[in-house]
């Protein structure tokens, strides 16, 4: 069981500090079997009631292979992705027990490999049918929406129904949060009783109907986890809903777009009112945006007509179901609308927000204040927080000690949680953070923006705020990332409470411009254009020439070299995490990542894994070989003596362990044998268990000129029951120390400790575990320091 002590996770048995170095498993779980986001086939057939998620993110029979891979990378935590749709896709109250059984078996595999887990009820822009993922298709039908017409009416931009899926704009899916379909659904889910009181189904408001089914679906899984005795030991707790949307809540003027710095705009961007017009099949002019260095920029206005000039009222293309379609859906699902909501059509027209006959906006500030109290609307405090309260109560009724991984609305400063409330205990602040510029542009640039602090107003107002937030050069960018995560960490302590902060998502796009998304493309042969050279010359006026040229040409290099764009981007992000002593789960592991379609979801390509295309025979491959505590250094005064398993049976009060369940099967394929994405910076040591309080982490990725380097500092504690600190050390960059290698010419790692003694506790094919211990007298009033000096990068 994991305890919480201020900003740190604590192992309940030994009282040592636990650092979580985790991975999201995985984005494939957002999609049902056989329906990637770029395929029209199978999309919205019979309300998508008959889909299955059994085998997503990968089949159970392959689980050993995948979890073994993750162990070799040093991951010790899994953010396990599920969706409401996967559990309850067939209809309200109908649960997919086959899927629930599959999840339980997957969690047991995690247990076998020593991986701890927290459950993530994932969604993006409400559902797959709104261009994202997460919630069942029947929820849209419940609200009277028709997903087949979302693209035409710009109610959502959905790759499945996009005219040319290959040209689906990068990252445009995120704009669906602001479009009619998702904005309507989030508004109904969080505040239907307040802003859509006429939407009553089976005698309850749609808000209560949706939330009740969401809570019950997650409870179905929680009960099975309890029944199989997986809580606490394997499943630490539950994330709240992934990246919840505001909907229209708090929107100041429905006739204008959100002008805040966090508002992402790309392509055709209707205002909320324009979205309502288009959703009802009415033509209107819409702003068109592109994304530049400082963010979204308006290019002009474009007339959008969902019906191409047609005016037949009986055959109009609308984002809403026709009356006949609506009546059929009520029969199909067995629900009944109240008399106040019998008519098909726009919910917001029904509530008087706008008038279809005059095509005019009647209540432009409808969502800005409470309809009766007229108090300003604050989404997080007024609507998300009550949702969080009920969610915690639902989970803790089943899993009493569950840690709740609190994820407020994305990019916003979190709301202040109640203090001294017993319900709000055992919490972890779990925000997401990405290098947004690189994510959207799919390019590692020689500049960046301090986005979080810009959004918090720390650079003032007016156009010059973007210049003040601008960072030029790689060193400045790395410092900028640290600054942003420092702000995020401080906000968590201030608003959520004195609890740990774990980044639930952080990662990079691998399909960067002018470069390869894998090691197979000889991108390094490309020649910079004249415009690239002019830009490089301009940047050299501000930056060191060598730095400029390194940044300029890095994207042309092989992905697996230290100076590739992908390696630099990932290293800068993880460096910021380590510098701020945050725990994290990388986004993400997708074993069926495709060279053409990436993660097979909306054009994203963030998986740390891409399979080599040539065939491999698992049955004949002799993969990693394991020796447990077979070699190391002893504590008998002879620090150069080679230890065998029999000579290190008891060190510092530690018993010699039996081979753990997570030791690798000897038929598993080495990750670096078949993974096209072997980023150098992902092979970094990290402290798994610390006999004290961490104070600093430094990692320098190896290059052809510089050795890999790692430094870890902490203050020792007298509270621990065993004074052993355990460090995971990858052999890629940090081969075994020279004292236990057969030849002095073999590359080796130099281990330096400020106090105490160390040994190799476990030696595996791809990594080794270092144990470091000391006497209480040695550790008195001192900072403990470990340094690892590894090898250079070899081409």
UniProtKB/TrEMBL annotation:
<dbReference type="InterPro" id="IPR052066">
    <property type="entry name" value="Glycosphingolipid_Hydrolases"/>
</dbReference>
<dbReference type="GO" id="GO:0000272">
    <property type="term" value="P:polysaccharide catabolic process"/>
</dbReference>
<dbReference type="Pfam" id="PF00150">
    <property type="entry name" value="Cellulase"/>
</dbReference>
<feature type="domain" description="Glycoside hydrolase family 5 C-terminal">
    <location>
        <begin position="684"/>
        <end position="776"/>
    </location>
</feature>
<dbReference type="InterPro" id="IPR041036">
    <property type="entry name" value="GH5_C"/>
</dbReference>
<dbReference type="InterPro" id="IPR001547">
    <property type="entry name" value="Glyco_hydro_5"/>
</dbReference>
<dbReference type="GO" id="GO:1904462">
    <property type="term" value="P:ergosteryl 3-beta-D-glucoside catabolic process"/>
</dbReference>
<dbReference type="GO" id="GO:0050295">
    <property type="term" value="F:steryl-beta-glucosidase activity"/>
</dbReference>
<feature type="domain" description="Glycoside hydrolase family 5">
    <location>
        <begin position="54"/>
        <end position="244"/>
    </location>
</feature>
<keyword id="KW-0326">Glycosidase</keyword>
<comment type="similarity">
    <text>Belongs to the glycosyl hydrolase 5 (cellulase A) family.</text>
</comment>
<keyword id="KW-0378">Hydrolase</keyword>
<dbReference type="Pfam" id="PF18564">
    <property type="entry name" value="Glyco_hydro_5_C"/>
</dbReference>
<dbReference type="InterPro" id="IPR013780">
    <property type="entry name" value="Glyco_hydro_b"/>
</dbReference>
<protein>
    <submittedName>
        <fullName>Glycoside hydrolase superfamily</fullName>
    </submittedName>
</protein>
<dbReference type="InterPro" id="IPR017853">
    <property type="entry name" value="GH"/>
</dbReference>
